[in-house]
Model the fold of this input.
Amino acid sequence: MILDLTESGHLFVSASGKESGMGNSSLGDELIDRILHYHYDKEFILSCSFEADFVADLMHAGFLVMSMGVENQGKTNYILMPKHHTIRTVLLFDKLRISKSVRRLLPHYELRADTDYEKIVASCVDTHGSDWLTPPLLCCLQEIREMENAPVRPYSFALYKNNKLVAGEFGILCGRVYTSYSGYYAENSCGTVQMILCAQYLQKKGFPFWDLGMPLDYKYRLGAQDINSVEFISLFRAGRA
Done:
């Protein structure tokens, strides 16, 4: 592992774990431990590597991996931006809130796990743009999905109504931790229904919590709460085991 600091104070990481004498230890876990130990005050680290093994290891450590494109003399250069969040939003399933109006809608929908992955990812990009869901990151996610014995799996949830896909989201499955990356909906209330059915699905499968990433108001309305990075990593490592 090669580490450096940029002028902005961001940690820059080169994907050279096999040459660093780390043995069987995880590059991602070592990074997380260093970040917490030295009280790194940035939410992102940076890298130029989109190698599937490297990115999968970062995801397995609890990073939410993003990216961005930087224009330089008419050419776009892409940067990997793993995010560790100083504050992370999680849903503990005993805190899930379901309003009466939404509860009445639930029987009319069907949640399908890990189907329509490519279609859902494409719809998320169409809806939200490719600012962080850049082409090399999407290719990397697909490569991880096709890897044998990968430590994580890009995963999707599709919401159907009358056999029609009306909402969906994708994220990363790591042991019994699911981290949301992006989602979309095509009809009113479908996004809320999809999240509730997803929470119920994860709970039934024995997941201890749902990693919702960054704080946003709509997550709190479902009963989610914020925890600090130390609390999150402890929860994450217990869940992925």
Observations:
- Residues 18-24 have pLDDT under 50 and may be disordered.
